[in-house]
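Protein Entry — a single chain follows
Fields — amino acid sequence, structure tokens
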Amino acid sequence: MADGPAAAPQILFTPEEIARRIEAMAREIAAVPQKPDIAMPILVGGFVFAADLLRALSRQGLDLAVEMLWLRSYGDKRVASAISMIAGPSEQIAGRHVLVIDGVLDAGRTVKKAVSLIEAAGAASVRVAVALDKERPDAVARADHVGFAIGNDFVIGYGMDDAGAYRSLPYIGKV
């Protein structure tokens, strides 16, 4: 017997809510005393958020260079596994003020790995912006700028996926 169609995702944040929050985050980041001069989005989950945040930062007069960081922790599962680096920081990071951009801060292992790699590459400073923070008390990393605080739901859409599905949804939802 075949399973029925999957339930439609429950919308947590609409495209309009996301856009408003990103504009507010851009104002916050543009107002920090030590402004970033390069962004390092974490692929793949952070790419949609990063694109929107970078354009919002530009509207605030903060045009950042961009270098991608590709780390993988979920693969095709919902439980994080060992973090593997597919593409890391280059020598362009030395002496720079880096803004790490990611989709979700869960246990913080991916952000912690990203910050460690960037600091080892000689960055002058590192700040972290995430679209979503699960605010886990046991998280090993924290974000400096957070779009939305959420519970422990598994989220999809807006660049985040469930084993490859839902990544292109224009909203953030849960399944």
